[in-house]
Specification:
Low-confidence stretches: none
CATH superfamily of the largest domain: Metal-dependent hydrolases
CATH architecture of the largest domain: Alpha-Beta Barrel
Helix content: 25-40%
Structural class: alpha/beta
Radius of gyration: 19 Å
Shape: globular
CATH class of the largest domain: Alpha Beta
Strand order of the largest sheet: 1-2-3
Number of strands: 3
Mean pLDDT: 85
Largest sheet: 3 strands, parallel
Length: about 140
């Protein structure tokens, strides 16, 4: 309630900007040249796997069929040995053959098979929240172990 009275933040709480507020706030504070901008550091997958436990992160490889098409089963085994815990199996990015392939690999490597719609709100209007039916809560429970 107090933050709504802070002059610098008032525009983000107006009814007019309600839906766009997160994007407007980001543009006003987090892009290059703005007060909260921090230079981005590119990390390799192995770097991420190394620091994930320190940040209480749970490393899961998303969209393997879309962005990591040249990643072999052997590559995924190396990532598993380095700390990978889950593999996105169910996603709109995969066709049925890719889904079956990654499901099999997840099983063989003892990776938790997970589901992700890649829902990001207005920036991906063709993806609707909750439209991917394969996701189950047991996946989350497995990742929490």
């Amino acid at each position: 309630a107090e933050r709504k009275k802070t002059p610098a933040l008032m525009k983000y709480f107006s009814e007019k900007n309600r839906l766009l507020a997160p994007y407007l706030f980001y543009e006003d504070y987090f892009v290059k040249g703005k007060p909260a901008w921090v230079p981005k550091r590119n990390l390799s997958l192995l770097d991420v796997l190394e620091i994930a436990p320190e940040t209480e992160g749970v490393p899961v490889l998303a969209h393997p069929g879309a962005y990591f098409q040249k990643t072999s089963r052997e590559d995924l085994a190396v990532l598993k040995e380095s700390g990978l815990e889950g593999l996105e199996v169910y996603t709109f990015y995969h066709d049925s053959s890719q889904t079956e392939l990654y499901k099999k690999i997840a099983e063989e490597l003892d990776l938790v098979p997970v589901a992700g719609s890649d829902f990001h709100g207005k920036i991906k209007p063709h993806i609707h929240f909750g439209s991917l039916k394969e996701g189950q809560y047991w996946m989350v429970e497995e990742l929490r172990k």
